[in-house]
Amino acid sequence: MSEAINNVTEVADRLIDLTDIVEDGFEQINVLVIQHRFDEAILLLQDVVNAVSTMQKAVNPLLDSFQSAQLAPVTKNLMESIAGFVSLYQEDKKDEIADYISSKIIPCYNDWKEQVKNNLKPRRTN
């Protein structure tokens, strides 16, 4: 039983560490956009979205239904904000992208990250 608890604790710790790495990815996307390296930003965004999706799949089994319900709306907001970024890119509104990242995507990601951390912290102390 204690080995299972240790495994859950280790997974929770790794997921929390990954939230900071993904945040760095969003910051790098912002830098690329400011430098007008939009194609590179889109490629990195794909990696970041894959990371968030993978993390979400790893987090869900660790949460009870109440915690999952708390995480669902912030996950939806994050994915919608990312879709908005892609729309701006596809519509060639590149002058709006940098502001959109800092005003929409990063705040949505921070909300998601905090919700993940708050829900995983109890798992870390078990």
Report on the architecture of this protein.
By secondary structure, the chain is mostly helical. It has a single domain (2-121), classed as Four Helix Bundle (Hemerythrin (Met), subunit A). It is built from four helices and no strands. The protein has helices at residues 2-34, 38-59, 65-90, 94-125. Helix 1 (2-34) packs antiparallel against helix 2 (38-59), helix 1 (2-34) runs antiparallel to helix 4 and helix 2 (38-59) runs antiparallel to helix 3. The longest helix has 33 residues, at 2-34. The mean pLDDT is 88.
Task: Give a quick rundown of the structure.
This protein is an all-alpha fold. It has four helices and no strands.
